[in-house]
Amino acid sequence: MDMYDQLIGQTIEGKYVLIEKIGQGGMACVFLGQHLLMQREVAIKLMLPQFSSDEHFIERFQREAQLASRLRSPHIVTTYDFGRTKDGIFYLVMDFVKGRSLSKALRDKGALPMDVALDYIRQVAKALQVAHREGIVHRDLKPDNVVLAQTPEGGEMVQVLDFGIARMVDEKPDMKQLTQTGAMVGTPPYMSPEQFGLEGPDGKPLKPGTTSDLYSLGIMMHELLTGKLPFSGKTLAEFYNLHTQEPPPALDAKFPPEVQNLVAMALAKQPSERFQSADEIITIINDILGVTETPTVTGGRSVDELHKQLRKRRRARQGFPLALAAGIAVLIGVIAGVADSLYKNSESVLVKKLQSQNPAEEMAARDRLYQLAKNGSSSLAPRLLAVAQSSAPEHARFHALAMLKLLKDSKADELAAKDSSPIIQALAKP
Q1: Can you give the pLDDT at residue 317?
Q2: Is residue 290 classed as helix, strand or coil in its secondary structure?
Q3: Cα–Cα distance between 428 and 430 in angstroms, integer?
Q4: Is the pLDDT of residue 178 over 70?
Q5: How many helices (H) and strands (E) would you count in the chain?
Q6: Is residue 140 annotated as part of the catalytic site, yes or no?
Q7: CA-CA distance, 302 to 280, in Å (whole number)?
Q8: Helix (H, G, I), strand (E, B) or coil at 84
Q9: CATH of 99-170+183-301, one of 2.30.30.210, 2.70.98.40, 1.10.510.10, 2.60.40.1930
Q10: Which residue in 40, 135, 137, 214 has the fewest CB atoms around it within 10 Å?
Q11: How far apart are CA 67 and CA 131, in angstroms?
Q12: Across residues 93-104, what is the average pLDDT?
C-alpha cells in the first residue's frame, strides 16, 4: 500500500472525501471524491507532497486553478474549487467525467469513421475557441486530454481537460517564468514546430500562440482519420526534425479533397500558413458535414475564403513534384560544386546548436555530431576545441570534450581536467 492509498477515506477541508485513486501524473495525483454537502462525485487533484514547498510548482498549480476556473463551456471539464489541506498539500476540484478517453477510443477501434472523427475535432475546436477567446493556450492537446463524456441521452460529448501547462497568450516578457527557460512543454508527438523552437523569418524562436494548439489539433485529426500519427519518432531529436523539417504525409485519396486540404493546412509548419482561429476550423468542418449553426465567435475568414485558401495550398503541393523534377538537372551541377562547403558549414551550424538552451535543438545537433565524431571527421576537432575552451554552457563543453575523446584528440583530457565543472573533470579520468 503506497502513501496515496492511505489517503482513501480521508476528508479534505471538511468538504470532500477521497474515495479512490484514479490517476497520477508528474506533479499531482487524481482521486475520485465526493462533495459531502452536495452528495456528488468530483475529481480531486492533489499536488504531490514533494512539491508542496516548491514555490515554482505551487505557483504553477495555483495558475492552473485560476486559468481553468475562467473557462465555461460544455466542452471543457469544469474546475470550481481550489485550496490547501491542513498538511500543506494543494488540491484542485473538478467535475468527475464519466466516459472514456479519446486515446482509449483509438486503441479500441483504430481509425474512426470520417464523420465521427471530424465531429470530435469540431467539438475540441469549440473548447479551444472558448480558451483562446480568454487568451489561454492549452499547449498539451492530445487524445489523453480529451474525454468522451457520457450524456444523459446515452450519447457522447467531447470534453477537454488538463490546463496544467496552459499559458496566457499576452504574458509579458518580464513576467516570472512558470516553465524554466529552455524547458520543453507538451507531448512530443503532438507538439507544434514552434514548441520545438522553430525560428521565424527574423531568426528568432517563434512564440507558441493559439495556432500552436491548432497544429496539435491537426495531429489529432490525422490520427483519428487514419489510426496513425503523421510523425512517428523514437527520440526527442527525431520528433524535433520531423515537426520542424519534414512535410506531413498526405491523407489517402479515399478522403475527399476538402478533408485532405483541411488536415494539410492545420499541419503547416509556419503558424501564419495555418488556420488562424479555432472558429475557422469549425466553419470548414461544419461545411463538410453539412452542419448549420449560429457562429459563437464573429470574425475570421468565410467558408468561401477558407476553401479558396485550401485549394491554393493543394495546388501548391501538387505542383511541387513537377517543379522539383524540372530543376533536378540544374541542381545536380550546383550541388556537386558546393557539397564540401555545405558539409563544413553544416558542422559549424551543428556545433552552434550544441550550445543551444533549447533541449530539442541541442539534442538533435548532439546526435548528429556524435555520428560525425564516430566516423572520424577531422574537420570537426577545431570547432569542438573552440567550444571546450570557451564559456559555453556546461552541457556543450561536456559533449564537445566527449566527442574530442572519440576523435582521440590529445588535448581532450588536459582540457577536461582544467574545467571548473566536476562532471567535466571526470572525463579526464581513465
Answers
A1: 54
A2: coil
A3: 6
A4: no
A5: 13, 11
A6: yes
A7: 8
A8: strand
A9: 1.10.510.10
A10: 40
A11: 9
A12: 89
Q: Exactly one of 140, 213, 409, 419 is catalytic; which is it?
A: 140
Helix (H, G, I), strand (E, B) or coil at 158: strand
φ, ψ at 133 (rounded to 5°): -65, -30
In tens, the pLDDT along 114-160 reads 999 999 999 999 999 999 988 888 888 999 889 998 888 888 899 99
Mean pLDDT of the chain: 80
pLDDT of residue 185: 52
pLDDT digits (tens, 9 = 90+) for 260-317: 999 999 999 999 999 999 999 999 999 999 987 765 554 566 667 776 666 665 555 5
Per DSSP bridges, beta strands 99-101 and 136-137 are: unpaired
| Domain range list for the chain | 5-95, 99-170+183-301, 340-428
Q: What is the C-alpha separation between 171 and 310, in angstroms, rounded?
A: 32
Q: Which residues pair with residue 92 across a beta bridge?
A: 45, 82
Asked if 74 and 147 count as a contact pair (C-beta separation under 8 A), the reply is no
**Domain at 5-95, CATH from 3.40.50.12160, 3.30.200.20, 3.30.300.30, 3.30.450.20:** 3.30.200.20
**Cα–Cα distance measured from residue 417 to residue 68, given in angstroms and rounded to the nearest whole number:** 51
The enclosing H or E element of 44 equals strand 40-47
The span from the CA of 175 to the CA of 165, in Å, is: 16
Q: Helices 278-289 and 257-266: crossing angle, nearest 10°?
A: 170
Angstrom distance (rounded) from CA 61 to CA 41: 22
